[in-house]
Design goal:
This protein is an alpha+beta fold. The chain has 4 helices and 5 strands. It has a domain of about 110 residues: 3-Layer(aba) Sandwich (Cytidine Deaminase, domain 2), CATH 3.40.140.
Length: about 180
């Protein structure tokens, strides 16, 4: 008669560990869940000359008002209505001399809270001279565009501003 494989001496050393009885709690402790409130809070405002943003040049004009003589990359988002009227501006992140994180999640969270139909993203190149979009700029713009499409928010443009001018990633065909 064949020996049961789990009763053989080969497996007895493993079985010794399974003979240890650990009591299992039958009732799990209760968990406290926080009740929260999320809302957009107005900090300040700026006066914009135009009522709507109808082209990249107008978008760049607004963007130039946001950027001072920064020594780091800053990312701003301007949230707009269906008629491209600005309703809110948010500083999304402050980076380093040559990079900044553009979180799709944070941008879209504010867009949804504002009831925005679309968003225009801006960032600066503080080192001057080079205004071209880096591969990281292009990749994060494409990722943001995909996320926007999923949630029904339109990514209108991504404007890069430098001391020599601006470029529109929409005009470049990236969006």
């Amino acid at each position: 008669m064949e020996e049961n494989s789990y009763e053989s001496e080969k497996y007895m050393s493993l079985r010794k560990f399974t003979d240890i009885k650990i009591p299992i709690e039958t009732e799990l402790p209760r968990k406290r869940i926080q009740i929260v409130e999320t809302r957009v809070v107005r900090k300040t405002s700026i006066l914009y000359d135009r009522r709507t943003i109808s082209n990249p040049a107008y978008a760049a004009d607004l963007g130039k008002e946001l950027f001072e003589e920064y020594d780091k990359e800053y990312v701003y988002a301007v949230y707009v209505t269906a008629r491209c009227e600005p309703i809110a501006i948010e500083l999304v992140s402050i980076g380093t001399l040559d990079s900044a994180i553009m979180s799709s999640r944070d941008i879209l969270k504010t867009a949804l809270l504002c009831g925005a139909q679309g968003v225009i993203v801006y960032h600066n190149h503080p080192s001057g001279g080079n205004i071209n979009a880096s591969q990281q700029d292009i990749n994060s713009t494409k990722r943001l565009n995909e996320a926007c499409n999923l949630l029904g928010v339109k990514l209108i443009d991504h404007i890069i501003i430098s001391d020599i001018g601006y470029i529109s990633l929409k005009e470049q065909g990236i969006i």
